[in-house]
Amino acid sequence: MQYRQLGRSELQVSAIGMGCVTFGREIDRETSFDVLDRAFEQGITLFDTAEAYASGASETVLGEWIAERGVRDRIVLATKVAGTLTKERIRSSAEESLRRLKTDCVDLFQLHNWDDETPLEESLEALTTLVEQGKARYVGCSNWSAWQLAKALLGVHENGVARLESIQPPYNLVQREIEPDTLPLCADQQVGAIAYSPLAAGFLTGKYRRGGEVPAGTRFDVIPGHQPIYFTDHGFNVLDCLRQVAEASGRSMIELSLAWVLRRPQVTSVLIGARNCGQVDQAFEALQADIGEDLLQQLGSN
Question: Whole-model pTM?
Answer without folding.
Answer: 0.95
